[in-house]
Amino acid sequence: MGIAEGQLETWSQPGKTAQFTDTYNSIRGNLLDASAPYPVKNVDVHLQGSYGNNTNVWADSDVDIVLCHTGAFYYDISGMSQAQQGAFTAAFSANARYVYTDFKRDAESFITRLYNGVVTGKKALHIPGNNNRRNADVLVCQEFRRYYSYERGLHGCHYGVALYVNGSRIENFPKQHAENCTAKHQATNQNFKRVVRVFKNMRNTMIEKGLLADKVASSYFIEGMLYNVPNDKFTGSYQDMWVECFNSVVRADETKLTTASGLHWLVRENSSVCWPSADFHIFTTALKKYWES
């Protein structure tokens, strides 16, 4: 029973990165060019997703890039006391002159001039690859702050990004996600990201064999799922680690699992940043069946 150790070890290895690096550097340079119609000094460009988190596998093709406007920010102050909320509101009473809708308009216009065949999706702009460049998705967003304290000009908050899709705001924390995954990797003797790649390759193989529908288990959710596994489960052979990690996940209280950022619940209904419970169970059931087949 189980998948051969040699196969798991192969799956644990990262996919090719050379063309990905060139793609990111090239697009990043263009997005930060002084000719851009948005204020470049108030823009942050960074990676997110599999390449950004170093959990990429051979089947990964798209480079996920964040283009974030930092000259203004969205916020959530619901976690503070009424007094702290009052102090915050008094300090930030004026709205920004250059807002997200302005930035999104200018960024989309600029990117479609830079590249041919750009497709505007609900969340990101898709830049088709060519012989020298891989496909890339550019998420156009604005800085987001989730405050937990504010007093006398001093504040505590989690920095993330936000954008609007069909009138609803989507908030996420890609940098915290990446930092926590790296810390987890270091705390598990460099095994966390290897095991993530194993699970991602299993997902891809099951999709290819028609054993799992596409888009049931995103890389983001797989990373979050395994982030909840205790560090001491990432020891031994790859077969040992797979079994220990899988058992830890399916025995856990799914309502208490968090994303890798630690700032969203992993499994919840009717949320664009959470994994629907049905899909979570479909994935874990498919994993068990494939492992035992």
Structure description:
- This protein is α+β, with helices and mostly antiparallel strands.
- It folds into 2 domains: 18-172, Beta Polymerase, domain 2; 177-292, no CATH class.
- It has helices spanning 5-11, 18-31, 49-53, 82-91, 100-114, 174-187, 192-208, 219-227, 238-251, 277-292; strands at 43-48, 63-76, 119-120, 124-127, 136-151, 154-165, 168-172.
- Strands 1, 2, 3, 4, 5, 6 and 7 form a 7-stranded mixed beta sheet that branches.
- Helix 1 packs across helix 7 and helix 7 (192-208) crosses helix 8 (219-227).
Q: What can be said about this structure in brief?
A:
The chain has 2 domains: 18-172, Beta Polymerase, domain 2; 177-292, no CATH class. 41% of the residues lie in helices and 20% in strands.
CATH architecture of the largest domain: 2-Layer Sandwich
Strand content: 15-25%
Structural class of the helices, strands and pairings?
A: alpha+beta
Weakly predicted, low-confidence segments: none
The coarse overall form would be globular
Strand and helix layout:
Elements: H1 5-11, H2 18-31, E1 43-48, H3 49-53, E2 63-76, H4 82-91, H5 100-114, E3 119-120, E4 124-127, E5 136-151, E6 154-165, E7 168-172, H6 174-187, H7 192-208, H8 219-227, H9 238-251, H10 277-292
Parallel strand pairs: 2-5
Antiparallel strand pairs: 1-2, 3-4, 4-5, 5-6, 6-7
